[in-house]
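Reopening this one. Same input as before:
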Amino acid sequence: MARRPRQGGFTVIEAVVATGLLATFVLAVTDVLMAAQRARAASERRLVATQCAVDGVEQLRAGQPLEPLDATLGLERSAAVTPWDGHPGLVRIDVTVTWAGATPGRVTLITAVRR
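Same output, byte for byte:
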């Protein structure tokens, strides 16, 4: 019986192994991209919350009442203005911004103002 000459191309096993490796690589890259997206969203939320806290501190330092936040942000802001114990003429301003959701968090800024 004569042997057939080997033709170029891939065997079925080579194709299955290559497909498995490709699928593993794609799943790994997808997982990394999803983790990066979650980190970006958390960073954006913290940035917006920090800016809202800074705005609140500036309003209170100027002697204005704390304005409510836009409800679409999903943030809650609270503040306290109290005399700073042991420092006559200074008041302490605490502004806290919180959020709920998949990754709840809180940003608090504290400063002092002479009054």
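So the earlier flakiness isn't reproducible anymore. For the record, The chain is about 45% helix and 25% strand.
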